[in-house]
Write a structure and sequence with these properties.
It is a single chain. By secondary structure, the protein is of the alpha/beta class. The chain has 13 helices and 11 strands. The strands form 3 sheets. It has a 7-stranded parallel β-sheet, sandwiched between helices. The chain is globular and about 55 Å long.
Length: 362
């Protein structure tokens, strides 16, 4: 199939391109600056074209110029940037209109669960994900397959990295009441499995929840599994009256993930994030070894090797050399800084010491 991937530089998108190329698809990827894609191991095996999804003309020219596209993946997400929600919705509309004009047959969108509550009660992040899904579903446009997921587990995944750094850096972990909210995580391996499967023209369009095999999972469960995997005890301090917006701002000061990105994601934790149906499991066979349990995914992410090219990863849960520089934990960041030169190491170490002193002294 000829497949167009937007958001190919992201955590999921970069791994998805590997899977599509490996199965023999003709893959087109977009970027504002196609030359910047050379750092990805799949660059020589794809067609790279320029597209600014924020610009309707650019989107139209790119999608129309991509040829006879069977399916288009919309993986664009500007979370952490100013006014990302309006920008994401605008980009989705531009791409959907362009896809309709180019007679693209299918759009596949990876978004989040939408909790059953008033729209205004949703966090900015979750509200944006729902609005993007609506913007992609145009009258007489391509059919839409919307996959909805909660926390994606794997080294390099922003949600996982926030959990990693909270556990690594805090000997006493504040535990608000909302960490007991139910949540269905999913391994990045299983996300890619579903994304690849649903471009089959025989797969019916619609909205599908995707989740891993674990039952009765909560936000706190992911943290507990991570602590078990690193074999370092941590104390939990109940702080029942701290809301997720305040927690997001505080967490942004503790972890190296961009603070605005951290704040937006943590603010979403006030709502349960669980699958309301599992219809996709009746339509898509499980991977050869079954869906990946949370414990296995976290173990793999914790015991990642040094970053490698994304298509050369022995395990998709491992860290790729194109994943964000803040990913992988502090020891991994030090190793990555060493490869960047002594000056980088000195600067990183100074910042790290200042951060630890501030954290201990208050």
């Amino acid at each position: 199939m000829r497949v167009l991937v937007t958001g190919a530089t992201g955590y999921v998108g970069s791994r998805l391109v590997c899977a599509l190329v490996e199965r023999g698809d003709d893959v087109v990827v977009t970027s504002r600056r196609p030359e910047s894609l050379r750092r990805f191991g799949w660059y020589d095996r794809v067609t790279a074209i320029a597209m600014d999804a924020d610009d309707s003309t650019s989107a139209h020219d790119a999608v129309t110029g991509a040829g006879d596209v069977d399916a288009l993946y919309f993986l664009v997400h500007g979370i952490g940037q100013q006014d990302f929600d309006d920008a994401d919705t605008r980009a989705a509309h531009n791409v959907a209109v362009a896809a309709r004009a180019a007679d693209v047959r299918r759009i596949v969108y990876l978004g989040g669960f939408v909790p059953d509550c008033d729209h205004d009660e949703l966090s900015k992040h979750l509200r944006s994900r729902a609005e993007v899904g609506a913007a992609l579903d145009l009258p007489d446009g391509p059919d839409l397959v919307w996959l909805r997921a909660a926390v994606i587990l794997g080294a390099g995944s922003t949600s996982f990295e926030i959990i990693r750094y909270v556990a690594d850096r805090l000997a006493v972990i504040p535990q608000p009441s909302w960490v007991d909210n139910p949540m269905d995580p999913i391994s990045v391996r299983d996300v890619i499995h579903y994304l690849v499967a649903v471009i089959d023209p025989a797969f019916p369009a619609g909205t599908y929840d995707i989740a891993g095999p674990d039952v009765g999972t909560r936000y706190e469960s992911v943290l507990s599994e991570y602590i078990r995997a690193i074999r370092q005890p941590r104390l939990r301090l109940p702080v029942p009256f701290v809301n997720s917006h305040l927690a997001g701002r505080v967490t942004g000061m503790v972890v190296p993930v961009p603070s605005s990105l951290t704040a937006d994601l943590v603010a979403s934790l006030s709502q349960p994030m669980t699958a309301t149906e599992h219809a996709i499991r009746e339509l898509v066979p499980e991977p050869p070894n079954g869906l990946t349990p949370m414990r296995e995914a976290i173990e793999s992410a914790v015991h990642t090797t040094s970053p490698r090219p994304v298509c050369a990863l022995a395990d998709p849960h491992h860290l790729a050399d194109t994943d964000p520089g803040w990913a992988g934990g502090d020891l991994m960041r030090i190793r990555r800084a060493i490869t960047g030169g002594i000056g980088s190491v000195v600067g990183f170490t100074a910042r790290r010491v200042r951060g630890v002193v501030s954290l201990l002294s208050g």
